[in-house]
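Notebook entry, structure prediction.
Reason for the run: the old model in the group folder had no record of what sequence produced it. Starting over properly, with the input documented here first.
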Amino acid sequence: MSLEDLYPLDDLIQVIYQSTDRFVLTSATDDDSWTLTLALVSSTSSKWWKKVLREGDIRKITSKSIKEFANESLKAISGGELSVSDLESSLITLVIDPVGPRPVQIPLDPVWTDEALRLSTDFVFSVGVQAQSRQNRISAPSHPMPPISSSSNAPRIAEPIAPSSSIPALAELEAKQEQERKRAEERIKALEKEVKSLSTTKQQNYMKSVTPANPVSLPSNNSKANPTRVKRVARKMQFEDDD
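New structure, fully documented this time:
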């Protein structure tokens, strides 16, 4: 028994409408497993379930050959012949071809927050990759679109930037700026000396202006409070001598 015959079930997606609930089912295969994921789309909450089936699991759900089982499951999934049961339980069941003579029931395990976030991210990435074949549109356009001039819709990888040829010019500019800075410092020092010299000259001129040219000196025996007092005393003493 080879699981390579499951390739018809690879890269499938289908929407399930059941009462007021909406589900999104994805199907993917590899060399040794078949992976089913189911997401509940709701305005109040979102939930994920997942099941990885290997050879022993598939033997339990069908007595047919892998190739026959894969073709019948492909027909049911593509035709929307799907349903979800046990919604009140945490372990819900996906039913393939529920109205057929032999419905296939596959229990799904709940997916917790971290893995649910990873599944959501992977799904969005897959949508982006698939959209590249449709001129980067999520769904096929309903009317003809003009062709894109580019030969490929694949994202372009940025090329490494070559070393710039303007590096010598940049070094020359920096040297010139350094020279201008030094000249500016020299001008500032010269101005400081000039200002200091002017300040000293102004101070000397001010001292000359407030100092009198011919200062007046008073006799040492005169009273500073009343200079004429000494003269009156001298006259009185001279009169007494004459008498």
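Summary: The chain has a mean pLDDT of 76.
The old model has been moved to the deprecated folder.
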